[in-house]
Amino acid sequence: MANSPARDLATSQPRRAHFGQERASPEASHIADWVVDSGDNQGMPFMIVDKVHAKVLMFNADGRLQGAAPALLGLARGDDSVPGIGERKMSSIRPEERTTPAGRFIASLDRDIHGQEMLWVDYETAISLHRVVKGKPSEQRAQRLTSVTTDDNRVSYGCINVPANFYDKVVSPAFTGTNGVVYVLPETRSAREVFGSYDAHERAPQVARQQAANPTDSSAVIRK
């Protein structure tokens, strides 16, 4: 027995991410809602790295925000990595090559050469997310994380540095025993270009219009 149009419309309502009291940028909100509505995270926890606003947002598999924190990112602005950079020594990486690449990455916990836990974001380009490191004294990484501006959050070789407390209480528990998806938002292109995303709040009206035009086709769903 075919579903009624009313039931079709009811089940086509978009799903949204839950941010609680956290304020997120329009691009971060757009991607979080799209992930939840489309199921792009495939039942895994997911993280959004908002490079423009130097912020990390961690969600559980259902799209409920688990925590947010400031982040330090690659010194150079840009959304791509130089080919082969993951195999090079850090001392050979020029300032303009120190980017945090944008994209969708399957991430998992691992340990670095010193035995410290970190989250592998992209093994090929040697990009990870970890507790903020001391770095060179002149870099003042800890101070940059706590400053009120995001202008000084570009300092790393490409890896994502977050406060130790945030890593220990939010990131590590979220990825323990499971992989997850990390969405690094672009800064030179749109999120739609990088992820093929859509506006979740626009999907239901589009489905409703299509179903109204084709009332006998109860399975019609617009994908874009």
Structure description:
- Helix content is 25%, strand content 22%.
- A hairpin with a 4-residue loop joins strand 1 and strand 2 (55-59).
- The protein is built from six helices and ten strands; from the N terminus they run ααβββββββαββαβαα.
- The strands form two sheets. The chain has an eight-stranded mixed beta sheet, with helices on both faces. The protein has a two-stranded parallel ribbon with strand order 4-8.
- With 224 residues, the chain is α/β, with parallel strands linked by helices.
- The chain has a single domain (5-207), classed as L,D-transpeptidase catalytic domain-like, CATH 2.40.440.10.
- The protein is globular and about 55 Å long.
Strand order of the largest sheet: 3-2-1-10-5-6-7-9
Strand content: 15-25%
- By CATH, the topology is L,D-transpeptidase catalytic domain-like
Class derived from helix and strand content: alpha/beta
Low-confidence residue ranges: 1-10, 217-224
- How many strands? 10
**Mean pLDDT score, rounded?**
88
Shape: globular
Which sheet architecture does the biggest sheet show?
A: 8 strands, mixed
At CATH's second level, what is the architecture?
Beta Barrel
Number of domains: 1
Using the CA coordinates, give the radius of gyration. 20 Å
Fourth CATH level, the homologous superfamily: L,D-transpeptidase catalytic domain-like
Tell me the name of the CATH class: Mainly Beta
Number of helices: 6
SSE sequence, one letter per element = HHEEEEEEEHEEHEHH
Distance between the termini: 28 Å
Overall helicity? 25-40%
